[in-house]
Amino acid sequence: MRISKQDPNTGFCRDCLTYQEVPEHRCVHCGSPRVLHHRELYDLTVAHIDCDAFYATVEKRDNPELADKPVIIGGGRRGVVSTACYLARIHGVRSAMPMFKALKACPQAVVIKPDMEKYSRVGRQVREMMQELTPLVQPISIDEAFLELAGTEALHRNPPARTLAAFAKRVEEEIGITVSVGLSYCKFLAKVASDLEKPRGFSVIGEAEAVDFLKSMPVTTIWGVGKAFAATLERDGITMIGQLQEMEESDLMRRYGVIGQRLYRLSRGQDARQVHTRDSAKSVSAETTFNSDHADRDTLAAVLRSLSEKVARRLKKNDIAGHTVVLKLKTTDFKIRTRNRRLEDPTCLADRIFHTGLSLLERELDGTKYRLLGIGVSDLTNADLADPPDLVDTDAAKRAVAERAIDKVRDRFGRHAVETGYTFGKNERARPQRDMDAVDPEKGDSEAG
């Protein structure tokens, strides 16, 4: 059947992929109720694909006896839930919930310790299938990614929407897990759409309906609006996106700084970010080997600050941020000490990287001399999720504004145009023998600085 992209009544069945000329509740060919129609269905090309309850679904695939049982993945040292299947979620089990609370809510649940090697292997299989659809695949985590399918219609002889439905069907048949698909005109709404009908969902949000659709959604729908910032907005009387739509951009920026601009734009469905590929880097780091060994705080702190700024520059340049700050030290006898701390929110700011690293460093100042110092961040994500307002450290916002101002000066006049009190006049005492920037050192992707 030849379809017309101008005909809003033309849809297709997600199970047998048969085109439907008029809206029907069930497929005219196979009788499936999973028939997809949307006025912009064949115009949209940005997708977000998310594996459903990924860890738990893989375990159920590998053990059919678990198919009808609630399954919780977690336990271990932290004693918290990593994820749970949808049966367990019905009972109130949620990710990051303490295990004792999860088992109180769902005492009949089967608890399985995570097998990350297996999940990574399955995640790679799904990723390889995605890359057969389009070269523009932007991984977000082990089990989700953005895809841009513009220009792929000639290759697949299908519009992007139907190509995605065929992909979801293939994953289910060949890998044995399920995925949910969100299709829209921008990344923000593609991600929102993929969460609407889990599991095995396929939701579409078109440009014409975006503002009205978002109007009734809570502010937490917007990336970067977590519990803390949502509480701030609620104190200001803002709980729904529709309220943000009624406010001026200048007012939101005056109240909330840079994040106010994000609130203004995303609340109106405005998201110009492109789907882009990048090496699946696990970390961004910088390290220095000294000409002579050091044990004193002032010297090490000065170098740590300089390295933190280098890491932050690289994060900002690549529009990424990290959840975990990692400190690396090498003693005079070449023993390596690695310390890390996971942040509540990801960061791309030198200030947060440095102060987190400094608190880790101070615990290691026991008189030991070090020949190498490094700092980095891991658990990478998009920078638009980074550094929301801090309700505890109220000066953090001021330091963030100051850092961005310094960035602008350095971009114009050079890296050494502005120095902080930590580094000014102090680096001579710890002049590096080698200064390395690294993205994912496990892959050996590094360059001399």
Automatic annotation (TrEMBL):
<dbReference type="GO" id="GO:0005829">
    <property type="term" value="C:cytosol"/>
</dbReference>
<keyword id="KW-0460">Magnesium</keyword>
<dbReference type="InterPro" id="IPR043128">
    <property type="entry name" value="Rev_trsase/Diguanyl_cyclase"/>
</dbReference>
<dbReference type="GO" id="GO:0003684">
    <property type="term" value="F:damaged DNA binding"/>
</dbReference>
<protein>
    <recommendedName>
        <fullName>DNA polymerase IV</fullName>
        <ecNumber>2.7.7.7</ecNumber>
    </recommendedName>
</protein>
<dbReference type="GO" id="GO:0003887">
    <property type="term" value="F:DNA-directed DNA polymerase activity"/>
</dbReference>
<dbReference type="Pfam" id="PF11799">
    <property type="entry name" value="IMS_C"/>
</dbReference>
<feature type="binding site">
    <location>
        <position position="143"/>
    </location>
    <ligand>
        <name>Mg(2+)</name>
    </ligand>
</feature>
<dbReference type="GO" id="GO:0006281">
    <property type="term" value="P:DNA repair"/>
</dbReference>
<dbReference type="GO" id="GO:0006261">
    <property type="term" value="P:DNA-templated DNA replication"/>
</dbReference>
<feature type="binding site">
    <location>
        <position position="50"/>
    </location>
    <ligand>
        <name>Mg(2+)</name>
    </ligand>
</feature>
<dbReference type="GO" id="GO:0042276">
    <property type="term" value="P:error-prone translesion synthesis"/>
</dbReference>
<keyword id="KW-0234">DNA repair</keyword>
<feature type="site" description="Substrate discrimination">
    <location>
        <position position="55"/>
    </location>
</feature>
<comment type="similarity">
    <text>Belongs to the DNA polymerase type-Y family.</text>
</comment>
<dbReference type="InterPro" id="IPR017961">
    <property type="entry name" value="DNA_pol_Y-fam_little_finger"/>
</dbReference>
<keyword id="KW-0963">Cytoplasm</keyword>
<dbReference type="InterPro" id="IPR022880">
    <property type="entry name" value="DNApol_IV"/>
</dbReference>
<dbReference type="GO" id="GO:0009432">
    <property type="term" value="P:SOS response"/>
</dbReference>
<dbReference type="InterPro" id="IPR001126">
    <property type="entry name" value="UmuC"/>
</dbReference>
<keyword id="KW-0227">DNA damage</keyword>
<keyword id="KW-0239">DNA-directed DNA polymerase</keyword>
<feature type="active site">
    <location>
        <position position="144"/>
    </location>
</feature>
<keyword id="KW-0515">Mutator protein</keyword>
<keyword id="KW-0235">DNA replication</keyword>
<feature type="compositionally biased region" description="Basic and acidic residues">
    <location>
        <begin position="426"/>
        <end position="449"/>
    </location>
</feature>
<comment type="subunit">
    <text>Monomer.</text>
</comment>
<feature type="region of interest" description="Disordered">
    <location>
        <begin position="422"/>
        <end position="449"/>
    </location>
</feature>
<dbReference type="InterPro" id="IPR036775">
    <property type="entry name" value="DNA_pol_Y-fam_lit_finger_sf"/>
</dbReference>
<dbReference type="GO" id="GO:0000287">
    <property type="term" value="F:magnesium ion binding"/>
</dbReference>
<feature type="domain" description="UmuC">
    <location>
        <begin position="46"/>
        <end position="226"/>
    </location>
</feature>
<dbReference type="Pfam" id="PF00817">
    <property type="entry name" value="IMS"/>
</dbReference>
<dbReference type="InterPro" id="IPR050116">
    <property type="entry name" value="DNA_polymerase-Y"/>
</dbReference>
<dbReference type="InterPro" id="IPR043502">
    <property type="entry name" value="DNA/RNA_pol_sf"/>
</dbReference>
<keyword id="KW-0548">Nucleotidyltransferase</keyword>
<comment type="function">
    <text>Poorly processive, error-prone DNA polymerase involved in untargeted mutagenesis. Copies undamaged DNA at stalled replication forks, which arise in vivo from mismatched or misaligned primer ends. These misaligned primers can be extended by PolIV. Exhibits no 3'-5' exonuclease (proofreading) activity. May be involved in translesional synthesis, in conjunction with the beta clamp from PolIII.</text>
</comment>
<keyword id="KW-0479">Metal-binding</keyword>
<keyword id="KW-0238">DNA-binding</keyword>
<keyword id="KW-0808">Transferase</keyword>
